Model the fold of this input.
Amino acid sequence: MSQAYLNGQYLPVEECRIPALDRGFIFGDAIYELIPVYSAQPFQLQAHLTRLQRSLAQVRISNPHSEYDWQQIISQLIANANLDQCSIYIQVTRGVAARDHAYPTAATPTVFAMVNPWPKQDEMMLSQGLSAVTVEDMRWNRCDIKVTSLLANVMMKQHAIDAQAHEAIFIRDNAVLEGSSTNVFVVSKEHVYTAPKNNLVLPGITRDVVVDLVHACNMPMHEEAVRMEDLINADEIWLTSSTKECLPVTQLNQQPVGNAQPGKLWHTVYTAFQALKSP
Ligand SMILES: Cc1ncc(COP(=O)(O)O)c(C=O)c1O
Done:
């Protein structure tokens, strides 16, 4: 049973009960974070807590905990689960109130967190890479806020699976934005590109780590608009996220990417990532 935390109590996730009028359930009025844990230590914790605070502020939910409190909750969950490698999911909803779109004046945020085992990266994905399909972005204009209302992402992920692919990459006005739960990097002529941080992409924590690693590996890194044709003609494509780390895409829309093998630059950055997470 996964270990969880709900409004001050540690308990198995199966015993967590949320009232039906919780706005997280009724409106998807909630913010979340997912933090990877290596060797029983949360990875990039400060960056995740900063993004959590930013997302909450953007939708005017007051952060129910100080950074110190969050650290305590996360440490306790890791200790209770007794897992070295796991992930921590945190969700804060606006709380319980009579159903009305307007923000309630007096609701107490609901705080839910759980720890999940997290298997090591699939060797096949590392050696052969992933497949992806492109889809028209039909999401809203605030993809920079980590909200739980992810129905468009869920639908597009299923679209990818139905097409025997691992991930769907969102395209809007010919711009390559991000995957359904990943950021996207493109390599062309030994230069690395990823979409700039703005309202159309989630500011991924792993994205930032990978941007820094690309710089550290002395590769030219460009945070600028990537066009659909750049993606199609890419030498390499990488997907990054807290659970995927940095994975190569070797097939796009049923066509090979580069030579259809995980690329040379990806290998360098992936190796640097592994060194960073287990110093
Ligand atoms: C839409 C989207 N983009 C990017 C990411 C990657 O973000 P991170 O590296 O912080 O996990 C996620 C992760 O859930 C996501 O949902």
